[in-house]
């Protein structure tokens, strides 16, 4: 009997905990969500026949602990893969950059993907001192340079493959902007915003 009573009590505690968690998840945050929307446009200095109608719409909203960013791109080559990066400045040399994830277009050349991370004025990188770096790929550096906090408030999208870029009438060049560091050229960016006023800075 005592064993069954303990089991009932344990089940009751577990159910109460689940109910409390469900209530917490359903309760809106005390502060109002911050949100913004903006466009990405074709990168500068591209040939006229290089995906001439490429464009992307970006929406970001605060989740409190991080941000949710949705990128919807159109006018891209169909059935191709692209790589999204948060970058320091929108144009070459791009500055400090970090890999967000991939977008894959459908047969219409449209891609939509949602990411959750830090996409706000608190998005930054810092290297207090030099340290050894893991050598995952041949192109990787053996160590990092030391630098003070640098905010990365712009976005860029690159062709995952230089061959796909060439097929689309774009430059057949190799850049480090994918997981294997053999991506193609940048196709979209937030270059309509000033270098020091990237759109991610709109989110508090």
Summarize the structure.
This protein has 204 residues and is α+β, with helices and mostly antiparallel strands.
Explained architecture:
With 204 residues, the chain is of the alpha+beta class. It is built from two helices and ten strands; from the N terminus they run αβββββββββαβ. The strands form two sheets. It has an eight-stranded antiparallel β-sheet. A two-stranded antiparallel ribbon has the order 7-8. Strand 2 and strand 3 form a beta hairpin. The longest helix has 25 residues. The radius of gyration is 22 Å and the shape is globular.
Taking pLDDT < 50 over at least 5 consecutive residues as the criterion, the unreliable ranges are 1-33
The main pleated sheet reads as: 8 strands, antiparallel
User: What characteristic shape results from the CA principal axes?
Assistant: globular
Number of strands: 10
Count of helices?
Answer: 2
Helix/strand-derived category reads alpha+beta
Task: Tell me the strand order in the biggest sheet.
Answer: 5-4-9-10-1-2-3-6
Terminus-to-terminus distance: 57 Å
- Summed over residues and divided by their number, the pLDDT gives a mean of 88
Strand portion: 25-35%
User: Helices and strands, in N-to-C order?
Assistant: HEEEEEEEEEHE
How much helix is in the residues? 10-25%
| CA gyration radius, whole angstroms | 22 Å
């Amino acid at each position: 009997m005592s064993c069954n009573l303990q089991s009932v009590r344990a089940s009751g505690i577990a159910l109460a905990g689940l109910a409390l968690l469900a209530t917490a998840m359903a309760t809106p945050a005390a502060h109002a969500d911050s949100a913004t929307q903006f466009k990405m446009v074709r990168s500068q200095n591209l040939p006229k026949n290089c995906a001439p109608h490429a464009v992307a719409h970006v929406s970001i909203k605060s989740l409190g602990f991080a941000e949710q960013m949705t990128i919807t791109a159109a006018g891209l080559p169909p059935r191709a893969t692209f790589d999204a990066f948060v970058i320091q400045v929108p144009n070459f040399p791009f500055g400090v950059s970090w890999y967000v994830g991939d977008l894959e277009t459908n047969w219409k050349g449209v891609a939509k993907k949602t990411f959750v991370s830090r996409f706000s004025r608190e998005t930054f990188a810092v290297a207090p001192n030099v340290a050894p770096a893991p050598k995952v790929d041949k192109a990787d550096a053996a160590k990092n340079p030391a630098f003070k906090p640098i905010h990365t408030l712009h976005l860029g999208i690159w062709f995952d493959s230089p061959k796909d870029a060439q097929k689309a009438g774009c430059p057949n060049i190799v850049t480090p902007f994918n997981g294997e560091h053999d991506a193609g050229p940048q196709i979209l960016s937030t270059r309509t915003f000033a270098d020091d006023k990237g759109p991610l800075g709109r989110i508090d």
